[in-house]
Amino acid sequence: MSAGLTARGVVRGFGGIRAVDGVDLAVPPGRITALVGPNGVGKSTLFDCLAGATRPDAGRVLLAGRDITALPDHARARLGLARTFQQVAVFPGLTVEQNVRVGAEQRRGGTARALLGLPAPGRAAARAATDRALRLLDLDPVRDWPADRLPPGTLRLLELARALAAAPRVLLLDEPGAGLDLAQTARLAAVLRALTAEGMALLLVEHDVELVARLADTVYVMAAGRMVARGPAREVLADRRVAAAWGEP
Ligand code: ADP
Ligand code: MG
């Protein structure tokens, strides 16, 4: 039984198109795994199958060895799976702090906790998780701002903070580097490294080759719904065929 998140033979089609066509993927704890490839090859569709936003037509998704293929996203969240969206999704009417608090509340009364017979962590723990996530992503200075007043890069960090506040075991990030300035990118990289050092399993769907090269332990490359390469980041990114699949000159 493997820890982390695993996809086995995942297929997902739309009409006649097989957006994801029989894909295997492993997202182990304590590592950063990156999924790369040009637009339209099925990265987000695979990501949605992993997160539970959509159901695969065939294949299985396992979380810590448990088959979660049939579970909806909120049930997966209770088991310790968190995600962010390519198009940032926050509650615009809530403040930064309230948005992060929503994430922190998701950890309360979780199934894993109930199975272990542990008490719900309660308000103080939710507040502490919120504060920690705000601090980690340098959102303290804007904690009372309405979310819809944040610039795009800060919004993306807010979405990450909300995911982190749920204290996930597995974190799925769709293009976390998009719209970030240099300082924010550096902070993102530092935070993601710290999280994996704590044993979190991270999957990054990312366009920014430099960010992937800097961060990822293992890189998977998709083309036309299939995995065409996979291996240590340095080797995979140096492969010319991979650059071709990516669409880089
Ligand atoms: P990527 O994230 O790599 O850019 P996507 O997973 O978004 O790729 O898309 C893969 C393919 O599936 C594309 O051809 C896209 O048009 C198609 N697709 C994705 N989502 C849908 C949908 N909800 N309905 C119909 N086609 C879709
Ligand atoms: Mg996408």
From TrEMBL:
InterPro entries: AAA+_ATPase (IPR003593), ABC_AA/LPS_Transport (IPR051120), ABC_transporter-like_ATP-bd (IPR003439), P-loop_NTPase (IPR027417). GO terms for molecular function: ATP binding; ATP hydrolysis activity. Pfam families: ABC_tran (PF00005). Residues 5-249 form the ABC transporter domain. GO terms for cellular component: plasma membrane. Keywords: ATP-binding, Nucleotide-binding, Transport. This is ABC transporter ATP-binding protein. It comes from Kitasatospora indigofera.
